[in-house]
Amino acid sequence: MRRDSIFYKLFGQAPTLLFDLLATTPANAANYRFDSVAVKEPKFEIDGVFLPPESEEPGIVYFCEVQFQKDEQLYERLFGESFLYFYRNRSRYSDWQAVVIYPSRSAEQSDVYPYRALLNSNQVHRVCLDELGDIRALPLGIALMVLTTVGETQAPAEARYLLSRVQQEVPPAAGRDIIDLLATILSYKFTSLSRAEVESMLGITLQETRFYQEAKAEGRQEGRQEGRQAEACALIVRQLTRRLRQEISEEMRSRLANLPLLVLEDLSEALLDFATLADLEAWLEVQHSER
Predict the structure, then answer these.
(1) Are the CB atoms for 29 and 53 separated by under 8 Å?
(2) pTM of the full structure
(3) What is the pLDDT of residue 216?
């Protein structure tokens, strides 16, 4: 489930939702703009950045990271990107803060000791969605974030409850975007269900929602990506068989099939230097340690 894209769509619609997660809110929070930025030399792509309104007085820039899978180098990357961006734009901002959104504390990287000063300061905020309380008692925007973490058994009932709140509390024009997000979350969460089954969960027609159409288009794109990946893997197996002069085991074929397409492309060049199966094993271990 691509939760980060859902969160960034949500923040794009309502940037002030980030500040609902924090204890202290800037006075001009309503004027912040959500964006993604690129930092060159080296090039970093920062997906979640909240930019203060342009004025004579420099404002605070907020960096946001949505992290649902354990990444043992998350803070290295987050702080590296944030510091470099802040350095290159120092004249535009008076300060910076970072917000990391986790489903639970277990998703945080294990070794945080090198960053203890930052993590225990008021500049870095770690938000654990499972600690925010009952989903039905939360503001709608935050409740949508929590819905991405709810299990499949509970999700339909919570989604219908949030839908009823939207219909009661939000004007139709603004409510449509929230309903779109509800539909998107369920369509990602229940990928094995048909459109009619997902529609039945919410009691709406998903084919009319914008985000559902985007989700289906993304699914088709991922399908094409998987097709290219399968072709690349089959080619790699043939090349390895010829290069190493031995059959590639089913276990190794399975490992190769799980590699991203870009890694397979790198392997297609690296294997030219392999002499034995041990060379392949060593190369794969290096790739695993770097991911």
Answers:
(1) no
(2) 0.66
(3) 56
